[in-house]
Amino acid sequence: MSGSSTNSRFDKWWLVMKIFIGLVIVGYLAYIFINVARQKSGEICKSVDIQIVDSAHIGFIDKKEVRRLMQEGNMTLEGKSLESISNEPVATLLKKNPFVKDVTCYKTPDGVFHIFVSQRLPIMRIMADNGDDYYIDDKGRAMQSMGYTADLITATGNVSRDFAKKSLVKLGIFLRDDGFWNDQIVQANVDSLGDISLVPRVGNHIIQLGSVNDLEVKFRNLKSFYKKILPTVGWNKYKIINIEYPSQVRGVKQDNLKDTESEKAKAQEEKKTEQPEQNTPATKPEAKGNAAKKEPKKA
């Protein structure tokens, strides 16, 4: 009987100890949780780290501009509790800028608020005869300048929004991705028939590109002409370098310029009088003055 009574007392004592130990553990965990929560709520934003994605390319957004936008939007973060700072209002504010493509925000335990800005990259400026003045990005979307400037190729002349989106964006992307031609070409001029002429930075000549078809072949031929011909005859020997056709590069001297302009004007007249249906007999066009296409002026 005494042995059974001893075991019973031991079991009760062990049960009490287990309950006590459990309460101690629960109390300790509660203490840790409360203190961590207090510390977290008391963490202060020490600094704001801003990173611009694709900053190697020409763009309108930099760290200074992001800080200016936040200041104008009364979005001062330094010194505030990290818990009180929400990511969404910061991203929404910055996305209002037309040159901002996307924004990602997050916080780190060291008290830093991180902002990653992805920007819309302009590839060309449009200054058309109809008064349009805007930039286009690599998707062909128009971007109003809003006082910003960028050192990009400028397209002038008969440039419609549709032509800029379908043709000039292709030329702009090609030039952007080629370091040599991106530095060499400063202006593109579009005539009434949609033919493109280019103004180079070096050399007193105009490059007749024509359409944006076969750009790689045309510019590869032109680079070969630059390397093999111009160093021998001189960079100012030719007034026009024609690369309209992928199979050839034709240099036109000043003396032959009038003949070339007459040929160009004649070709333009033929294009104007072409019939849309192949089976319809061509009619004789009315006599018109052959006005040669104006050469784009140096930017």
Summarize the helices and strands and which ones pair or pack.
Layout: H1 2-41, E1 47-53, H2 63-72, H3 87-95, E2 100-108, E3 112-119, E4 122-128, E5 133-137, E6 142-143, E7 154-157, H4 161-177, H5 179-184, E8 185-190, E9 196-200, E10 206-210, H6 215-228, H7 230-233, E11 238-242, E12 250-253, H8 257-272
Parallel strand pairs: 1-3, 4-7, 7-8, 10-11
Antiparallel strand pairs: 2-3, 4-5, 5-6, 8-9, 9-10, 11-12
Question: In words, what does this structure look like?
Answer:
- This protein is α/β, with parallel strands linked by helices and 299 residues long.
- Among the domains are: 47-119, membrane protein fhac (Ubiquitin-like (UB roll)), CATH 3.10.20; 162-272, Rossmann fold.
- The chain has helices at 2-41, 63-72, 87-95, 161-177, 179-184, 215-228, 230-233, 257-272, and strands spanning 47-53, 100-108, 112-119, 122-128, 133-137, 142-143, 154-157, 185-190, 196-200, 206-210, 238-242, 250-253.
- The strands form two sheets. A nine-stranded mixed sheet has the order 6-5-4-7-8-9-10-11-12. A three-stranded mixed sheet has the order 1-3-2, covered by helices on one side.
- The protein is elongated and about 125 Å long.
- Mean pLDDT is 80; it is low at 275-299.
How many individual helices?
Answer: 8
Low-confidence stretches: 275-299
Cα-atom radius of gyration:
35 Å
Any idea of the CATH class of the domain at 162-272? Alpha Beta
Order of helices and strands: HEHHEEEEEEHHEEEHHEEH
- Structural class given helices, strands, pairing? alpha/beta
Strand tally? 12
Q: How much of the polypeptide forms β-strand, as a percent range?
A: 15-25%
The CATH architecture name of the domain at 162-272 reads 3-Layer(aba) Sandwich
Mean pLDDT: 80
Range of helix content: 25-40%
N/C terminus separation: 113 Å
